[in-house]
């Protein structure tokens, strides 16, 4: 360390030592970070800049290399530590995409890091280091996310799809083939712009794209071919195929990401043989036999989901036809397999009905499932499929686990009203509820402190906009668009952020509404005061309800919550008494006739 930096660090230590520091509290915040001295263990802690600005209590990671040292006595932050990454949001509208800084936002509005760039699609790499931008003239531009500068552009005629490898090292493009001999899937090196691998692929579907799959560290790559899986050295594609595994009839493949140690293969039903999912260990000498296998009857498609650590695989089996005739949309079953062979079977779901959503926690040690007929049920299971926490029932079909594993959001989007329930998983309690109607996409921020929903086109052409919520359900930010196509967080590793700050206590009730609706509510709140000063108006009879709607309120309450109206109008009560008297009269006449006959 340079002498000047050492002197600045000593000044910082003196500043922190003289402050009333305590573990987890930012004392002495300044431009870069808050420097904190903990007298109990004689250690210095550093607090991220955005937390220092909020001046809120925080839990600080003691061994976090991603924090900076800074205080009022330091001219510039000490350079031997990297800065905490700031949150960024990609927003794409008809005019193009732009990058926003934050949250937190200064003065309640986001700062624009990159002005609008015309494009047809944009997507970050999984690690957030690169940004791929597709344009209408069949060109793809690669941006460096740290500088927001374009580093490479590719012209690919007749291109219909493109994607990047997890670390942004490779760009993969798909072109509509003109001849069977044309190699229409090309893998490009983003740094040099040179193609490193090419092959022919007839069709592109969700199950076959991207054609070449990578592990998160880009150490292993594989692709699905006819009756086999082909493996490559992802650091040197000039070696071509390094080994392969033969699986007759294979239709889908899923490589585990972190680490890329295993691969799952799906073989559909054929000639009376049931469908199956098989797990193979990656390696030339270890792929002769599967390490785990599960067979399924009545299986049309599967969704394969690996956990972090590559020790467990969730298999959502879906059939187009429900043989029990309980659902028009078919049936679904959740299965679980482990790579060590200790578990293979169904996940014990306690309610009949479809599986709406499932997601692993960031640690990979538990997963949450939303399942059952409405109102759906949500349960958290451990790696042995033992239920850990019951999250209750409600109009939910979506679950989102925040990257730190502390918070959960249950939501009902799509054809549901948009109810959201936020849970503190570690404390096993609900923090709050709210509603985000017509949401199309939803996701937690990389630091786990914000939850963003977006209403986008072409799914919905009206009321497009973005909403950002705190983990207790309170609305932090909202903006509307004439038309919005995309709103995504820039990916970052959750390990680069400190622990989540302690949040406010759970709120009793929260309603998020439009400004116009709030104005109408304020007017209605004044009306009772005017009515009390004069004679109360005559109560109007209740509106007519047709016979088929008599049970509608009860069904609505059961499915979506709320209270049904139990009060009965005067005419309804009068008719009810009349019907009861008629029944009593008929019963008396029947009894008299029976006595006379005897």
UniProtKB/TrEMBL annotation:
Signal peptide: none annotated. One of its GO terms (molecular function) is ribosome binding. GO terms for biological process: regulation of translation. InterPro entries: TIF2A (IPR011387), TIF_beta_prop-like (IPR013979), WD40/YVTN_repeat-like_dom_sf (IPR015943). Residues 294-487 form the Translation initiation factor beta propellor-like domain. Keywords: Initiation factor, Protein biosynthesis, Repeat, Translation regulation, WD repeat. The keyword Signal does not apply. Residues 512-598 are annotated as: Disordered. Residues 515-537 have a biased composition (Polar residues). Coiled coil: none annotated. The keyword Repeat applies. It holds the Pfam family eIF2A. Residues 589-598 have a biased composition (Low complexity). SUPFAM superfamilies: DPP6 N-terminal domain-like (SSF82171). Functions in the early steps of protein synthesis of a small number of specific mRNAs. Acts by directing the binding of methionyl-tRNAi to 40S ribosomal subunits. In contrast to the eIF-2 complex, it binds methionyl-tRNAi to 40S subunits in a codon-dependent manner, whereas the eIF-2 complex binds methionyl-tRNAi to 40S subunits in a GTP-dependent manner. Belongs to the WD repeat EIF2A family. This is Eukaryotic translation initiation factor 2A.
